[in-house]
Amino acid sequence: MKLEGLVGFVTGGASGLGAETVKQLVAAGVKVTFGDLNSENGEALVKELGEDKAKFLELDVTDEKAVEAAIKTCVDTFGGLHIAVNCAGIAAVGQTITSKSMMSFSTMRLVTEINVFGTIYVAAHAAKAMSKNKPVNDRGERGVIINVASVAAYEGQRGQVSYSASKGAIVGITTPMARDLGRFGIRVVAIAPGTIMSPMLAAQTDKMKNLLLKDTPLGRFGEADEFAHMVRSCVENSYLNGVTLRMDGGTVLSYS
Ligand SMILES: NC(=O)c1ccc[n+]([C@@H]2O[C@H](COP(=O)([O-])OP(=O)(O)OC[C@H]3O[C@@H](n4cnc5c(N)ncnc54)[C@H](O)[C@@H]3O)[C@@H](O)[C@H]2O)c1
């Protein structure tokens, strides 16, 4: 799909990869509604981009009814929905057991609620809205849903049981969701980023950041603009579907 003139919905759009995605989509001529818990950052980004091009909604993606309402607001405000990008997510650390402790199952539940249920609520309600679009081109395209996994889906580090489980789920849902939605002209793609500089990565200890850099053949972390570029490519390439694409500079996470 050509980006110009489309309408997008981005979760986690007030920070990091989501915020850069909002900016690049708007720069490409897409009208974007974005939801996040962080209303201060969200409102500031709308001021920067212009209210005619971007709309912020305070949104908790674990609230399915709120997700449904947010997507309705997006459609009512900008006249449709063609691109949904699921950037809202949290990381959590906790080893299965140590000599003194056990991982927190309530944390695992929260990670799953946000990273997995949040993604599926948005994808399902976005798909419903997209299914009502007229095809935007002669390939019958009505929309694309972009989910965000992680290389931790494949080689999670020590302490990443909860996070890796949630990102493995994103890899897992991508193919069946694409199979469900293909007949509506809706594609589903997941991006599995490596280590991309963002507030989430910045919050890691220096020791962890140095370990991560050693796993990266390019010797640097990725940048949010490289992720957002990948999002644009996923929208533009009409034959990308049902696949999780690693965008990691060749990173393979090591043992710890
Ligand atoms: N940065 C990386 O290296 C990296 C690598 C792999 C995957 N990812 C994934 O990319 C996505 C974006 O990460 P980021 O690095 O930009 O992190 P970030 O912390 O900068 O941004 C995440 C955003 O999600 C929002 N959010 C959290 N819980 C929410 C909820 N319940 N409802 C709505 N919004 C909520 C936060 O407020 C925040 O603005 C996440 O899913 C993350 O797991 C990031």
From TrEMBL:
Please provide the record's keywords in A-Z order: Oxidoreductase
Which InterPro entries would you find in this protein's record?
A: NAD(P)-bd_dom_sf, Sc_DH/Rdtase_CS, SDR_fam
User: What is the superkingdom listed in this entry's lineage?
Assistant: Eukaryota
Q: Supply the Pfam families for this chain.
A: adh_short
Database matches in SUPFAM superfamilies? NAD(P)-binding Rossmann-fold domains (SSF51735)
Q: Which GO terms describe its molecular function?
A: oxidoreductase activity
**Record PANTHER family:** 17-BETA-HYDROXYSTEROID DEHYDROGENASE 14-RELATED, SHORT-CHAIN DEHYDROGENASE/REDUCTASE
Q: Which family does it belong to?
A: Belongs to the short-chain dehydrogenases/reductases (SDR) family.
Its name, as the record gives it, is: 3-hydroxyacyl-CoA dehydrogenase
Which organism does this sequence originate in? Answer: Euplotes crassus
